[in-house]
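Below is one record:
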Amino acid sequence: MTPQADSLPLEIGGVDYRPVNAGAYLPEAELPKLKTIFWHNNIMGFSPILEVPIEAWSRASKSWITPAVAGKASLIGTWAQHNVEIPDGTTYLTGVVKTNPWWDVKGQWFGEDSRQCVVGMNLLKRIGAKLGDDLNVSSGDHAKWVTLKVVGVLSSGGSEDESVLAPLSVAQELAGRPGRYRKLYVSALTKPEDAFAKRDPKSFTPAEYDRWFCTPYISSIAFQIQQELLGTDVRVIRRVAEGEGQILTRVRMLLWLVTGAALLAAALAVGASSAASVIERRTEIGLMKALGAGSGTVGFLLAAEQLLLAFVGGGAGYALGIILARLLGEEIFGAAPEPSPAVFFVIIALAAGVTILGSALPLRRASRYEPAPILRGE
């Protein structure tokens, strides 16, 4: 998300006349509104960015860092783990730790509103500094110097490895822009886009628009953010969203195949267990029939026993599945699914269905036993 004014072109004859360092800024005070949109629970994190070109002096290595020496030397002001006051009175912890979980930091992240920083690994090697050193940082005009202690080394695989990361307040102080930022990254849980979601919302009928708005597509969440935060240009990082969508689609297909194979294996196991149980209790079945029990009564008793085992097994499987789903969800996707009573009843119904299907043939055979040959030991 960037200021809408920055997206307005200023080109004459194919030449962009906008100053490199000029641009609009957005108010930091409006960021809590992100947690008030319709899909606010799907917003997993957000981190504002304010980038400032810098010159710096490393006391320990006596190295002078300038854009000419260090390449594109810049200080990126952001949040690491920042508590945001939500309009409903609660607080929300967010920052680059949530929006960029793949960033690897050796040491620790800087503290909010502190004089600490995290330096990209490439820049740190270039200037010969190390953890615990002090950096004197200036925005380039030398009007304001800030001393920052290096508390972490960042490895991101991107341009951040050539930068200094510090609290947003430090960047605002150097840039002379208190309470402002230039760019915002938002991480949200979304549904992979299908053909319907890729249509232009302006072509929707009222019913289609309601369906699109009330579905957590990435396009609908971006639209709601732009409605809430006026004067912004919200763009989707398609290469990330579509890549994750394709992965999730393949994972879903794989899980359906695994589920089908598991149900088939369970039905075969139940059938084998039921057949063995019927053979072992052949004498009991013959005695019951000799005492007057009909085929339906015998089948009902055996089926009730199997269903009781199915209910116990289904409940235990549901509990174990919830534990594994939370562990895998937090480890792989960064979000744990919440237990659902509807899923519990579906699991119980599936367990009962698999049990009846797997034990149908053995129970049918048990109901056809004749008591006389069995009691004679034949």
User: Anything to note?
Assistant: Residues 302 and 363 are 7 Å apart (CA to CA). The longest helix spans residues 238-280. The first strand starts at residue 2 and ends at 3.
